[in-house]
Design a protein that fits this description.
Largest sheet: 4 strands, mixed
Structural class: alpha+beta
Strand content: 5-15%
Radius of gyration: 27 Å
Strand order of the largest sheet: 6-5-8-9
Length: about 450
């Protein structure tokens, strides 16, 4: 049994690859050469089914997890499925006959209202998409605009926000905040496939991508045909979005604009409201005419940057990065859900849930330069917990305060107070008993950390 890398050295021709049907004996993606079916030159699909690429894809899928598709298979069951079915699936991929199952539609509420529709592919096709993504991204990513930051290796939202800040400091004090209307749901398949074929000569890969786009959606037991859009939920969708919107990037560069794009969120920076209005109008026409996309006029605007938000942040009048009011509102809503006083769970369980949410939130929003907001949120979270505990203690509040070292008189005055739990959460008795150190011992993370 020899590996794929060894097979490439057969006949000392590293630029060629034999057609390699995989056997599953003792491990995944081991192979045996079939010299009767040589391929003169390695094409894209051969790169997709390369052993190293497949193993990397499997690791990524297992790390990212995800929900089962319409067949109910979980990520944990994927390796066993591949041991049984991979030779047949690989043959279908190389012959261009693989047909994916429809995606499972999941509707989740948007933070700003409305519904976001996710398309959850089967775990097997999630794995195939990941393998295809890794090959396409290596070929395409270096060709994308420097002003594109979304879903690209070694690029992130923080870099996009920092670049926006640089443009503002250069004097481009007005922002054209463009919102593409239901971008992922309304991408034109013909236009998208035209862009794909400009970069991919392997027709098997083109057919696979087209079948991904038109695989259909199962929702409430009904199969719906997808005539437009690219399902959110699969790893390939963000790359296809970047490919489609690279046309917008190149047009903005050709016009000499300063802009930052993160997936379908695009901000263009100009020096006056009048210039911004002109840009918004002309770019909207370009998107409609060339890419068959429309701008959501209700959500798009030309305004000062501190009156708009981008990727959860906004800017102060001094152009410092700060957390947007919408992000703070979403944070508080989530904390209220976790610390709802009628849940009846032990405080240790509540703090554990808070920790899972707050650690990730802090890692992202610690990028803010206006840091007093973090201190205020820290204090607010502790007040929610004091309120939760006081409600949970009920009639035994006096005894619990005494256990935590509160004096008899202060504990009695607190327990007999006519004020409600929220008002008492700031009382001297609860502040003395339930200190920051008390919650820290339970594992509550801190949002505000003083710079050293």
């Amino acid at each position: 049994m020899i590996g794929l890398q060894d097979e490439r050295r057969v006949n000392n021709k590293p630029a060629k690859q034999l057609w390699l049907p995989f056997e599953i004996k003792g491990g995944l993606f081991t192979s045996k050469a079939d010299t009767a079916s040589p391929v003169e030159e390695e094409q894209l699909m051969e790169k997709v089914v390369d052993r190293d690429n497949l193993l990397t894809a499997l690791r990524n899928v297992k790390r990212n997890g995800g929900s089962p598709g319409i067949d109910g298979m979980t990520v944990k069951e994927l390796p066993e499925c591949l041991k049984r079915k991979w030779p047949k699936i690989r043959g279908q991929l190389l012959s261009g006959t693989y047909v994916p199952l429809p995606v499972r539609r999941v509707e989740i509420p948007k933070s700003g209202g409305g519904i976001r529709q996710l398309g959850i592919p089967t775990v097997l096709y999630l794995f195939i998409q990941q393998a295809l993504l890794q090959v396409l991204q290596r070929d395409w990513d270096a060709t994308f605009s420097e002003s594109s930051y979304g879903f690209r290796p070694e690029r992130c939202a923080h870099q996009a926000i920092k670049q926006s800040q640089e443009y503002l400091k250069q004097g481009y004090g007005w922002v054209v905040d463009m919102d593409l209307e239901k971008f992922f749901d309304r991408v034109n398949h013909d236009k998208l496939m035209s862009e794909v074929r400009k970069r991919v000569s392997d027709e098997r890969a083109n057919i696979l991508i087209q079948r991904f786009l038109r695989s259909g959606v199962e929702h409430e037991g009904k199969l719906l045909i997808t005539e437009m859009g690219t399902p959110q939920g699969g790893p390939l969708s963000p790359l296809l979005a970047n490919l489609m919107l690279d046309n917008l990037d190149r047009e903005l560069e050709r016009r000499g604009h300063r802009f930052v794009r993160y997936a379908d969120d695009c901000n263009i920076y100009v020096k006056s409201r009048r210039a911004g209005s002109r840009v918004l109008r002309s770019v909207s026409q370009f998107l409609s005419r060339r890419l068959k996309l429309s701008v959501n006029e209700a959500k798009s605007a030309v305004d000062r940057p501190w009156k708009r938000q981008f990727l959860g942040f906004t800017f102060s009048s001094k152009l410092n990065r700060r957390i947007s009011s919408k992000s703070i509102k979403r944070f508080k809503n989530r904390i209220r859900e976790i610390t709802c006083r009628v849940r009846g769970r032990r405080i240790e369980v509540i703090v554990k849930e808070l920790r899972r949410f707050m650690v990730g939130w802090q890692a992202y929003f610690n990028f803010t330069e206006v840091r007093h907001i973090l201190r205020e949120l820290d204090s607010w979270v502790k007040r929610r917990l004091r309120c939760y505990l006081w409600k949970q203690w009920g009639r035994r509040g006096y005894r619990e305060l005494k256990k935590l070292g509160v004096s008899k008189d202060l504990a009695w005055n607190t327990a007999k107070s006519a004020h409600g739990p929220w008002r008492l959460s700031r009382s001297p008795g609860l502040a003395f008993a339930l200190t920051a150190k008390y919650f820290a011992r339970l594992g509550l993370p801190r949002l505000f950390i003083r710079p050293t």
